[in-house]
């Protein structure tokens, strides 16, 4: 079997890749660099020239080749590698008539617990409580709470140290009282706090038993993240911006997190994500795959979740709640009682709909305009 063509498909704010073979098998992948899709597409097209005519089963070799073939790496290159890698695993599973998880060691579980990755931003306590009660009624047993400050503030109210901590802790208190104890919270700080803020918030929020404090500070300085982890009692999750196996290893070896968050569409595909999960197992760290993208990303994550022993929980993006993206694929992934069911179809388990581009017109997410504080200074996002 040989690779004959590589095609790109844009839908919504997603970039999908289809790898064709002379056996009639087509593999499907997704790129993770959603802010720079055109640049990522150009990298995939350059890689395609190398792939044509080659054996699609040589997944590890291709992954290493594209990583090491030139000096330049970074998020664009790694997202391109990731998309191709996922598509090649899809081809291999289809060719052997097995789900990808069978090629990764087989099932370690029958379903995958997920949390609703919603980005609710409201100052109304009653509305906030109702939103999380609704998620609970939908069967979710865990959800994200967005704790990254007010969307805007002309006078600085809510951005000063004391009011910032009070504001975010109050959100968690309201949500805990709304859903009771049998519900887990992932507190999404989105890299939006300073070291002092993160420590103060982490300590103050402990009585409400959050499962995870996600990216409390920017991840650029591993020692800063490790210092936060050493001073609070809430487990930290980070790693979603990592674009290399070694970045994740350093985070874990420095005890900067209790949960690692590889992004299968950005860190090097299924190949690298599986390695990161193995490193995490050796460090007694649990895995929460980052999944802010489309159905192909979710399907690839499920294959990894199905085959590793140290899964924490799986992110389910708010974009696809209530079936909003079901028509993007021929057969939607199935959610049931707070869990995603693991597809048993060969490959990664999903096929892009023929009219996905028409149903979900391309619209790139994000912009070049940074978020700013009340005084005009740039803030992390």
UniProtKB/TrEMBL annotation:
Its EC number is 4.2.1.6. GO terms for molecular function: galactonate dehydratase activity; metal ion binding. Gene3D superfamilies: Enolase-like C-terminal domain, Enolase-like, N-terminal domain. Residues 125-235 form the Mandelate racemase/muconate lactonizing enzyme C-terminal domain. Keywords: Lyase, Metal-binding. It comes from the Bacteria. One of its GO terms (biological process) is amino acid catabolic process. The keyword Aminoacyl-tRNA synthetase does not apply. CDD domains: MR_like. This is D-galactonate dehydratase. It comes from Faecalibacterium prausnitzii. The gene is dgoD.
